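Protein in question filed below.

…
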Amino acid sequence: MMQSTVEAFYRAAYEEDGRMERNPLEFIRCKEIISRYLRGGPMEIADIGGATGAFSYWLAAQGHRVHLLDLTPLHIEQARRKGKKLGIALASYHCADARGLPFADGSMDMALLMGPLYHLQGRDDRLRCLSEAMRVLKPGGVLLCEAISRYAPLVDGFKYADVDDPKFIGILDRDLATGMHDPGATSYFTTAFFHTPAELEAEAAESGFEHIELIAVEGFANALDSHGILKNKRQRELLLEYIRRTERIPELMGISGHFFAVAKKSKEVS
């Protein structure tokens, strides 16, 4: 049920293509964080749930072999058109489920999960997704997965005045209590799960990943009008500097709209 709901949302209710460009701070920070784990030579990278390829084409332009996978056929079609326009061909395109990857065991240097974890409400489903990422990674391979913070709708609700809507208040209260987001018959974000930092770390650990790091994406700036700040060169650089300086502080992690778990597969082959 949830799979069809999410697919329908992206097919008919929300234009995913260009979302990162519409959210420049998240895009800047995600690329910055991912870049820290890239190595000089070409890498085999699985962009799992990569939508229309915002990160795939950015990585492919740097010489990496990127395998884009998404659940929504429309996103794969849009990604292929984007590749033709850019003159960049990805290593492969797949319309498939993150819980059953079409990649061989130990074939990837890096796996990106930039959306699947917050689209899977069931913990068992999220663990299956993480286990599949583990399976396809090479020994020593790195996982970067992004989650939506449990407290993101609280911040956004006041920032964008959604709290004026009684229906939103009901959704918000459920989000905060359980992390299980269900918009019902409203136009708010589709069915999802919003993590606490501790939950994301625990799920990565239970899936067998090691050396887990939590990194805030927008950090404290999630509560600000970052679009205006980013237009001012001095303020932009100062904002990014302070986000970096505070990105790992546990007490500030939850205020970020998104945060990463970065982890590695053991180099020891069992």
